[in-house]
C-alpha cells in the first residue's frame, strides 16, 4: 500500500488549488486533488474535515527575526557545553543507528546530531502547532502555495498510511518529528528504522535519524567527505575570492596561504571560502557537502552554525571568533538593501536580513568602491553608498 501511494505522489502534478479566497472552497479543491493522487475517499474526507486557518502560523511566517542574528550571536546562543555533551552522549547510546546511517547513506553522525540538536533539542521540543492546519494555512496563503500544497497532499497520504494523526503537532511551517522533516520528504524518503512497519519521526529515534540521513543522501551528500573546516587566511588574501560563488580545489587555496586549524585540508575537493562576518571574523572552507545542508534549512547563518557544530561534535576545536566589524541594525540593513536594489542588484526581498543575494551585492559594491570585498556589510559601505 505504501509503495503504491508513493508512486502516485511522484506521478501527480504539483497541486494547483486556488490560493486565497473562501477557505471551504479551497479545502474542497485540495480534497479532490488528494483523491486523484490515490488517497482513499474516506481517508481524504477525514483529513480535510474540521481543518481551519491558524493565524499564529501566518504571524510566524512573516516574522522570522531569528535570521537577523549574526553567525557569532546565533552560534553562541545555540552551542553550549551541555548541548555538546548531550550530543556525544546520544552518539554513544545510539551508536548502532548512527553506524547504520553512515554505512547505508554515507552521512556522518556529527551532521545528524547537529540538526537533531538544533531542530528539536534531541526530540524534546518538537513544536506545538497543529501540523494539518499549519500546512493548509500556508497552502491557502498566496505567498508560497507551490511549496505547501504538495505538502498537504503528502500529509493526506501519510494519514491514509496511519502515519499521520490529525492531532499531529510540529513546527509552524509543517515540519514533523525529531529532525523536523516535511511530509513529502517523509513519504518519499522516510525509513522504518525500528522495524515496526511504520515511519514515525515523532516517537522513533531510529526512524528519525535514518530518515534524515536518507534525505541528505538524496540531495547529494557525498559519503566519506567533509563539509566544513575552519581555516586561517593570510593578511594579503584577496577577499573578493570569498563567498559561495567562487570555488577552487583545496591545493589552490593552500597555494594562496589558506591553512587549516583542525587537521589537513581534504585533497582534491572543490571548496569555497566562507566569511560569515567578514575578514575580521571566523573563516571556513566549505566543501560540496556543505551545500546539501540548504535542503534542510535555507538560512545561511543556521546552516553554517549547524555545520560548524557538527565539526565540534566530531572533535574540532572552537572557532577563533576574531573581532568583526559591528553588524548593521535591521533598519540600516533595510536601507542598504534599498540602495543596492536601486543600483540594479538582485537582493531578494528587502527585509533587513542578510541573505545570499545581499551578500553578493555587497561584495560587488565593495569591489567597485575599493573597500575590502569580504561580503560583510559595514557602516562604511552604507555611508559610501
TrEMBL record:
Taxonomic placement: Bacteria, Pseudomonadati, Pseudomonadota, Alphaproteobacteria, Rhodobacterales
Signal peptide: 1-16
Name of the molecule in the record: Lytic murein transglycosylase
Keyword terms: Signal
Domain Transglycosylase SLT, residue spans: 23-310
Cross-referenced Pfam families: PG_binding_1, SLT_2
Keyword Transmembrane helix: no
PANTHER family: LYTIC MUREIN TRANSGLYCOSYLASE, MEMBRANE-BOUND LYTIC MUREIN TRANSGLYCOSYLASE B
Organism encoding this protein: Tabrizicola soli
Domain Peptidoglycan binding-like: start-end pairs: 331-385
NCBIfam families, alphabetized: MltB_2
Recorded superkingdom: Bacteria
